[in-house]
Amino acid sequence: MTQRAGIFPTFFLSGFECSTFLWKDRGRRNLVAETQHDRFAHADYAFLHDVGIAVAREGIPWPLVDRGEGRYDFSCLAPLIEAMNAAQVLPVWDLCHYGYPDGLDPFMPDFKRRFTAYCRAAAEHVTARVRGPHCFTPINEITFWGFAGGEWGWMGPFGKSREGRYALRNTLCAAAVAGVKAIRGVDPKARMLHVEPLIHVVAPRDRPDLADAARRECEDDACHAWDVLAGRLCPELGGAPDVLDIVGCNCYSFGQMEYREHGPHQALAPDDERIVPLCELLQDIWRRYGRPMVISETSGLGRGRKDWLCDVMQESLAAVDRGIDLHGVCLFPAVDMPDWHTGQWLHNGLCDLQPQADGALRRVPDADYVEELHRWQRLLNRVTVLDEDPFSDPVDLNDVIQAAHRLKMQPDRDWA
């Protein structure tokens, strides 16, 4: 009998890269098509079932389904929904992954209204076709999109100023709040997972004068979207504690950085003494919001995937031992994805993608990564293969807490 029910049916989650941004000089991109997840949805979801994962972040491509004037074509979701239902995997629907419809712009007066109507229509469509409980991410990584689309000019709307970044993130926050309310108008019990990068920024050793700017970047700017959604900042945008709901922290090695005045910051070397243990970063977010938490994306690269998972789990359990309310760790992505800039495969998924003569991308599981997943599933008293009905019992968080108390993992700043 479950004593302390988690939010999800399994502690480990996964997901699929689903960006639909306008990218620099390449126009509209669709990462679901580039990774052939649309073509191999049944194989992808069957794989998650077979490794004991019953939750996956999945995208609805707003630019591709919104036909304007309140008309929507959700037919592209049919193979995904069929596959997840067959494999009994619960989706966390990502409604806006950096992309918006052609002819629209976040700074247009109509943006929030269009997004709100789309959220309502999307929720109506998927809740009628997928078993609940239902969970959504209205807008993915508002903070990062503010940088990439508002200051660095990488993706739409191609802003190139700090002021543009500030304006974009608040516009996206307002739309996200409205989207939450629209979704809950369809399903009042729907859960919201709000995903942002978990970062730490330090001043260059030879520029102590940048210490305040670095601190603002990792304490104020990095939390701006969560603060607005929670109603702590810009109350006129409509945020409230129940809007924030679940806090999703995206954790990657490049999230610990040395500050640069112009352009993206420089990732710290894995053995840099200025690195802060992940445990402490998670604790900081927990103390700030006191909301249920998920590591909403994390992965290593190449042969380092196994060791990265081990490090993340040790740090996560150290944080649980110190009292944070952690409901899951999302191994993202389930299948490999291309580097946005170079197009080269990153080798960061549970499965690599191997091009075939006919153009198909064959799924090749990384055996060491999968076995490390299974090792942690066993340590947490979790299943390694889904049972007949993975939805019948949610995760008993007491199992996770007891494992954290038993293992007594210690935070470690050396991630080499």
From TrEMBL:
Alphabetical list of InterPro entries matching this protein: GH
SUPFAM superfamilies (alphabetical): (Trans)glycosidases (SSF51445)
Protein name: B-glycosidase
